[in-house]
Specification:
Strand content: 15-25%
Order of helices and strands: EHEHHEHE
CATH topology: Rossmann fold
Distance between the termini: 27 Å
Number of strands: 4
CATH superfamily: Toll/interleukin-1 receptor homology (TIR) domain
Shape: globular
Oligomer: single chain
CATH architecture: 3-Layer(aba) Sandwich
Number of domains: 1
Largest sheet: 4 strands, parallel
Structural class: alpha/beta
């Protein structure tokens, strides 16, 4: 079974550009043999910032089920996801 990588990436500040960046990251992870778990792709139907609390709760559950968290930014959401990963002892990497 492939290792599951939670992809923590900013979205709200520039949705169209951030979606393209996350697409490239996920393709790269697939090519490296990982299974990317990307909330940016999973929850694109939400209405942006007004649903942030709900989305973060879903993200925490996804982090629970992943093998590692990769953080690709410093947005409020990325920092909350990183803080959660640290809190539960999940392996993580900040990738600049």
């Amino acid at each position: 079974m492939k290792k599951r990588v939670f992809v923590s990436h900013p979205f709200v500040d520039n949705p169209s550009v951030n979606r393209i960046k996350a697409d490239m990251i996920c393709r790269g992870l697939l090519e490296e043999g990982y299974l990317p778990i990307s909330p940016l792709h999973l929850f694109g139907f939400y209405n942006g910032d007004e649903d942030r609390k709900d989305i973060l709760q879903f993200c925490y559950k996804l982090i629970d089920s992943c093998d590692i968290v990769h953080v690709y930014g410093e947005s409020e959401g990325c920092l909350a996801e990183l803080e959660y990963a640290i809190k539960i002892g999940k392996p993580w990497r900040v990738i600049v």
